[in-house]
Amino acid sequence: MTPFLQLAFVLVIILFMAKVAGYLSTRLGQPSVLGELLIGLILGPSLIDLTHLGFITDTHLQEVVLEMGEIGVLLLMFLAGLELNISDLTKNSRVSAYAGILGVLVPVGLGWLIGSLMDMPSSHALFLGLTLGATSVSISAQTLIELKMLRSRVGLGLLGAAVFDDVLVILLLSGFLALASGHGGAADILTVFLRMLLFLGLSVAFGLYLLPRIVRKISRMPISFGVVTLSIVILFTYGLAAELIGEMAAITGTFIAGLMFGRTSAKNEVESGIRALSYSFFVPIFFVTIGLNVDLHNIELDIIGLLLLISAVGILGKIIGAGIGARIGRFSWRESLQLGIGMVSRGEVGLIVAQVGLTNQYITPQIFSAVVGMVLITTLVTPPMLRASFNSPKKTTPLEPSQEKTP
């Protein structure tokens, strides 16, 4: 088969199996995203190794599929932002700040403590802590959308906390790399912080003042799906700007782009167009590719103990840290628990931080394998834990009638 036919074959398998697995997961009372994550693990190198079957000769096939998955998570976070109102987020800014900051500091501190007790060099122990501090809320956001709770106090607090989490993790990581290399210091950390502020300022200013005018102009022009295409251009631009200007995660940029588009007159048109594109194609690919990124054969038996330890610390550290932060922000104990669980998943962000440590030799290949296992475990346990925390007669009430739709 030609490279294109090989890609078509792999996409057929991924999309079909993702939807089947998602359906079966819902029939078992779990979020559909859990089934998509598990089928990705089965299709990945841990079992079937779909992208490396005997007749697959295209060496770039897996990379192409993974990049399609990256588009999926950008679209997912754009939709999450599109569903929300900026004023609702600002009302929860206090709880978001406390939960985001403590949700980083507590697991980082616990990870450093574990590394120190294992007689790791101080720099290695600290970096192990940093790998536990990262959060990826894309999995939790999708689960909350299915539960129709994205616009609840917990959902708003969770997404706001994720922004603070992203900022703090990047600052800590940048500061660590600068100090550990011996070629930087406070000036480098200040530069990173200023770049974040520059990105946030530019993105909000553009979204508040220029974007509505551009949307109105495009909507009056005889262009097929012009506004939807514009939204795709803007969300990618925000993602690029987040990475290149603010040194933040691209998903933070696309989330902000969604918030900005949510204020425009074309919100409903953009939402229907992007939702169909996302959930029919790119988002299922993203959830499946998480499993395609993991090879359980690389997790050696002699690190199982470490894997279980850092997984337990990774889960409890986020629940305790973010949960206490939410409680300080005057959430109820139940809401604090729900928000803490929502921060547990490390997803692709955890893998990126771990890869930085491996590349710079701040963690060994064995520690890296354990961290990859921790990322997988925290990603898999988050959807059922989050659903269970809402499965009670006393649920968190949305701030207004929810308009989320189950994909």
TrEMBL record:
GO biological process, one term: proton transmembrane transport
Domain Cation/H+ exchanger transmembrane residues, every copy: 17-386
Classification via Gene3D superfamilies: 1.20.1530.20
UniProt keywords, alphabetically: Antiport, Ion transport, Membrane, Sodium, Sodium transport, Transmembrane, Transmembrane helix, Transport
Gene Ontology molecular function terms on file: antiporter activity
Entry GO CC: membrane
Transmembrane segments: 6-25, 37-56, 68-86, 98-118, 124-145, 157-180, 192-211, 223-242, 248-264, 276-297, 303-325, 363-386
Subcellular localization: Membrane
Topological relation to the membrane, as annotated: Multi-pass membrane protein
Record's keyword annotation contains Transmembrane: yes
Domain of life: Bacteria
Protein family membership: Belongs to the monovalent cation:proton antiporter 2 (CPA2) transporter (TC 2.A.37) family.
PANTHER family (alphabetical): NAPA-TYPE SODIUM/HYDROGEN ANTIPORTER, SODIUM ION_PROTON EXCHANGER (EUROFUNG)
Protein name: Cation/H+ exchanger transmembrane domain-containing protein
